[in-house]
Amino acid sequence: MRGAKSAKWVALAAVVAMAATACGGGDDDKDSKGEGSGGGIVRASWTDPQNPLEPSNTNEVQGGKVLDMIFRGLMEYDPKTGEAKQAMAESIETKDQQTFTFKLKKGWKFSDGTPVTAKSYVDAWNYGAHIDNKQLNSYFFSDIEGYDDVHPAEEGAKAKAETMSGLKVVDEHTFTVKLKEKFSTWPQRLGYKAYSPLPEAFFKDHDGWLKKPVGNGPYKVDSYKKGTGMKLSVNESYAGAEKPKNKGVELKVYTDFNTAYNEVMSGDLDVLDDVPAGQLANVEQDMQGRYINQPAGIIQAITFPLYDKGWSSKKAVKVRQGISMAINREEITKTIFQNTRTPATDFTSPVLGAAGGYSKDICGEFCTYNPEKAKKLIQEGGGIPGGQMVLSSNIDTGSHKDWMDAVCNSINKVLDDKDACRVNPVGTFADFRDQITKDQMKGPFRSGWQMDYPLIDNFLTPIYKTGGSSNDGSYSNKEFDKLIDKANAEADTTKAIKLYQDAEKILFQDMPGIALWYQNGSGAYSDKVDNVALDAFSVPVFKDITVK
Amino acid sequence: MGRYVIRRLLQMIPVFIGTTFIIFAMVYALGDPIAAMFGDRAPDPATLARIRAELNLDKPMVEQYVLYMGNIFSGDFGQAFNGQQVTELMGEAFPVTMRLTLVAITIEIVLGIGLGLVSGLRRGKLVDTITLIGTLVVISIPVFVIGYLAQYFLAVEWDIIDPAVSSDATFEELIVPGFVLAGLSLAYITRLTRASVAENLRADYLRTAKAKGLPRSRVIGVHLLRNSLIPVVTFIGTDVGALMGGAIVTERIFNIHGVGYQLWNGVLRGNSPTVVGFVTILVLVFLLANLLVDLLYAVLDPRIRYA
């Protein structure tokens, strides 16, 4: 009997515990029902931003998506053409391509009611550049005079100044920027969100601002719960030309985009901006026309470790070119990616358009599959260094393992040697980047590039210029560097683009990397919304979406 | 009894230090998380050094571990990369996962023991065969397949539930994920109970109980079941920890922002404070659940005593 009695107590305790927790859960019930469809709110998929949401600290798409809604800078990019247009800038003037005078439009306000002034920009840029603030995007201010004083390059060095000498507030709505060197297209990159203005509240109550960011864009943040989602409503004080056509946006964090996909199908989610690979085969049928698949400013490439002797020898150029010709891009993009990738014909992206520097034939035969010539070139170059090439990429995202297998198969078939190419899958992006930045790569590795702004120099300078911030293969060619500098100083855009393309041509002679394919943005939406489109960054153009 | 509990609690200390250190070393080996923060851009050395120094990442691994443990004992579990305190993350994630675990355990106990008892009492009959086949099917299909199928049919095709659990994660919403999570253990519990019941049916004390003329409900409920439950309780005890840690797959499928989600994110981003912090708590839960099981033995079988 004793035992039976204690067993009863255990059971009773369990019942009480359950009842208690059940009550706690029950209260929230009403809330979850209320956030359903209707009310003109667009519900969209999201994943948690990796870093705190600050303009100069956000370098990935998910955080960028929010900044795009809550901020407007001096420039903005046309969602359809990617062209840079003036947003808050009334006028941009320069006489020498080095000192620029920016005049701001009047009447702009942050969503907390304070006005956007020249000081809002200058303070924000100084904050972004200063070493003490440890901003991941401080690089974007490095062209401004005085950057090296606020952000010394050496480890452990202290800043010599608090502000950059190149930035000057002239009056409430005017400021000037002096660059270190001539750079005619520099203002066009100011649509990038790192260059957003910041309200005084950001500097006064930084933690509070991070919890609920305040900007000057078409939307304002109503609530932000990290790891769960964010609710945004229309910013009534927004002074830009086009007001949002819906009442707000709710971003919901998903752990798995397959779930988000199912939510779109069942009507519990409106916009999904990344269709998971596993659903690509059936997405057209599932969504019945509510599927978007269009080029984005992302290119996938392979980079050769030119710090390795085997890969950088004079003869190895032919091997590198041969490998490029041994990859059957057409077949891989069709079978593995269901046409959500487009075989690359240059090192830029189709979103630039021909006028912006994209070219269909600049790569020429080197980007075309040609097994005989490929084999011949590789043999002439002395064969693959070390007898076997190891292809590396992280495999935690993006079906990288699948295409790497296909690329290696393609190369092995061409060389008629099943050990010519081997895949080296790296578990995490962190480990992968770690190995790359320490120059530890033994063989070619993946190098994806997502543009910061739709300009051709963004696809060339950081990746291939000597000492460039993403020049992972340590490529260096004086001729190339000279052409880029010349292009930067050229005031006439058409001429400048011609010069950039001349530089790009050198890349195909040297083959420091292989252009694989352009990545498309893919999206799906529910039947409750209309006018869904992706911009050049493959982010939905939220302000144009209408709710039925 | 009291001395036994104290001894068990003291034993937890080396286990606790061992597990946290192993996890710490494993996350450390995953590569440089700060390099990944910069995306495809090579990190700027000055900023890199500042962030490293702030997170103690510039020190040797053992020193990092000692610093980390020191902070933990003063209640500071460190920060996730998005600037959130790990304790804050825990406060959000653990209640959700505990609710999910509670649902799963309840399902396991009620259905598993019920089914096991029925099929054990009717060994070789139709009910028994069906249970055996059913549990075999569940055991052989991976959890994520069951999860996606359940989600597709129940949510998309028939529209009975929502595909994703809302951020509130109420009990009602957690029933289906709970079933998916419980599935495998449910099958094991059913089979364990069945075997145990079938064996004890032939025991002398049961024959005696029947011969005394006790009512059938009492024979089964008190004499048979109580004695058959010891292996089952052991299993359920260890399962509490396993379910909390193993919810990663289920939580992903149903978009539940619990422990599994945070652990997954932590591993992916090489964020040792998140991973080690969460695992530390999981280890504690696991150890306490096991202690509780051992204490429950005494309730089930008075012959087992801890002096």
3D architecture notes:
The complex is a heterodimer of chains A (548) and B (307). Chain A has helices at residues 2-27, 29-34, 61-70, 118-129, 147-150, 200-204, 206-211, 257-265, 283-287, 309-312, 316-325, 329-335, 353-356, 371-380, 400-415, 429-437, 457-464, 478-489, 493-510, and strands at residues 41-46, 75-77, 84-86, 89-94, 99-104, 167-171, 174-178, 219-225, 229-234, 248-253, 271-272, 291-303, 341-343, 389-394, 421-426, 445-450, 513-525, 529-530, 546-547. Chain A is α+β, with helices and mostly antiparallel strands and 548 residues long. In chain A, strands 11, 12, 13, 16 and 17 form a five-stranded antiparallel beta sheet that branches. The termini of chain A are far apart. Residues 1-37 of chain A have low confidence and may be disordered. By secondary structure, chain B is mainly α. Chain B has helices at 2-28, 33-37, 45-54, 61-73, 86-121, 126-140, 143-157, 171-200, 204-211, 216-246, 248-253, 259-268, 272-300. Chain A: Residues 1-22 form the signal peptide. Chain A: Residues 47-59 have a biased composition (Polar residues). Chain A: This is ABC transporter substrate-binding protein. Chain A: Keywords: Signal.
